[in-house]
Write a structure and sequence with these properties.
CATH architecture of the largest domain: 3-Layer(aba) Sandwich
Strand content: 15-25%
Radius of gyration: 22 Å
Length: 464
């Protein structure tokens, strides 16, 4: 095991400039000194010393289809040579056809007519969804959201994100969420099956509507002061927590009874991360709004958006000018999004992702049997979790995971004579969960390699 690497002279010059000129507001240095990367391809990135790192988080699930995906890159290059830019108030073919593709898919799956509205990223699209929801509910600004939920860090998005850390300095500007417990079975009450715990969480939520004195419901007029429930079907930053399959169906029944909309945040889990286009599809419910971003363009362009039911977003209720962004629906982004849909329609991505996810999960389960510090593993498609705990297999151990992340970034692990690093993402309520979001194009040998590298990190962590 080597000591921590020292930055090269060239990198140190850049790091000194970063320290002086760059805002730290959008920066997280997981290790010191931080790596500076120079190229990427497939499941790998290389630093300025040409050291390769296998990436098992793929830019927080933005690069679902692999770094420098040739087909998606070429779609972007082709668009640059035809219509590289046009103001978002003007029409172009890509915007219309991509909207149609998403809306027709939703009609086929959910039986609902709807429309698509684009913006420049996930948080901004959450903001647009809040406008649609408030507009459709006569200005109601209160929302439900989950403990452990993450919806972004703009002012509106952070107000429905459960971490107070993200909004402490800025106060509140309209929206405000009441945070409801998520069925996190590993850390839930003992003695319940996963499905029983899901039902229990729904029943506790339903209690809020029993009488007017529970605080959210006026039974005399049949009205709640809450407009919508924002859900990540699979929690992202919260640690890739996967709820029981009965949970959302039972929750949606309560919401429908009380006229509360369900907004499905698919920013991290959309575009086949869980083996379906939208992760909410696994749970047999009809969302009222879907928010998407990230992998729509494989990270090549900051394009996001929302799909909403016709009743919420038709031009009579949500007229021109209701919300706007200069770069929304830009032709570079829509071109890549269209090509992504074409690409995924030619192969059964759902079956492919589920098969690879099953294989990866079985490997994690094998590691869990051999390393008591792994308290929980779970997965749906290629959204996988590995919770690092103390020797009892339950007490959260953030320090050990931080150590593993640092060791992975040293780039000094050997597998079959090849020196490699491993990029991991940290999530979870206690920051002790490895959230694994590998490329959907990852090969089975690369999955095996990732498991071997994880094993080396676990050995280092348990023998240090």
């Amino acid at each position: 095991m080597s000591d921590i690497r020292i930055a090269t002279a060239e990198d140190q010059v850049l790091l000194d400039k970063e320290a002086k000129y760059c805002s730290y507001g959008d920066t997280v240095h997981y290790i010191e000194p931080p790596r500076i990367f120079s190229r990427c391809e497939g499941s790998y990135v290389w630093d300025t010393e040409d050291q390769a790192y296998l990436d098992l988080q793929m830019w927080y699930s933005a690069v679902n289809f692999g770094y420098a995906n040739p087909r998606l890159n070429n779609a972007l290059k082709k668009q640059i040579d035809t219509l590289p830019q046009i103001a978002s108030q003007y029409l172009h073919k890509g915007k219309i056809e991509l909207s149609e593709m998403i809306a027709v898919d939703a009609k086929n799956k959910f039986g609902l007519d709807g429309r698509v509205h684009f913006n420049v990223g996930g948080s901004q699209s959450i903001e647009d969804s809040l406008k649609v929801v408030r507009n459709a509910t006569n200005g109601k600004s209160l929302m439900f959201a989950f403990e452990g939920g993450y919806h972004g860090r703009t002012l509106g998005a952070s107000s429905i994100t459960s971490s107070y850390r993200y909004r402490r300095r800025y106060g509140h500007f309209g929206e405000r969420a009441q945070f409801i417990p998520f069925p996190y079975h590993f850390r839930g009450p003992k003695g319940m099956t996963k499905e029983e715990y899901g039902s229990h969480c729904v029943q506790q939520f339903a209690r809020l509507f029993e009488t007017e004195y529970n605080g959210v419901w006026d039974p005399k007029v049949g009205s709640s002061e809450y407009a919508a429930f924002y859900v990540e079907p699979i929690q992202g930053t919260g640690g890739y927590v996967i709820p029981p399959m009965n949970f959302y169906r039972e929750l949606k029944h309560v919401l429908d009874q009380h006229g509360i909309l369900m907004v499905s945040d698919e920013i991290q889990m959309g575009f086949y991360r869980t083996g379906k286009l939208w992760s909410i599809e696994h749970f047999d419910v009809q969302p009222d709004v879907i928010v998407f971003g990230k992998a729509l363009t494989n990270g090549l362009n900051p394009l996001g958006g929302i799909w909403a039911r016709e009743e919420l977003i038709n031009p009579k209720i949500f007229p021109p000018g209701s919300t706007h962004s200069t770069f929304a629906s830009n032709p570079l982004g829509t071109a890549v999004g269209l090509e992504m849909f074409k690409m995924t329609s030619e192969v059964d991505y759902g079956a492919m992702v589920m098969a690879k996810g099953k294989y990866f999960l079985e490997g994690l389960q094998d590691l869990q049997k051999r390393f008591p510090i792994i308290g929980d593993v779970d997965g749906l498609g290629l959204a996988l979790r590995c919770e690092i705990c103390g020797p009892d297999g339950f007490t959260p151990d953030k320090a050990t995971l931080d150590y593993m992340v640092e060791e992975g970034m040293k780039g000094d692990m050997l597998v079959d004579g090849q020196k490699l690093g491993l990029i991991l993402d940290v999530g979870g309520y206690y920051k002790n969960v490895i959230t694994l979001a590998p490329s959907l194009e990852i090969s089975y040998p690369e999955i095996d390699l990732g498991l071997k590298l994880l094993e080396q990190l676990l050995v280092r962590a348990t023998t240090r």
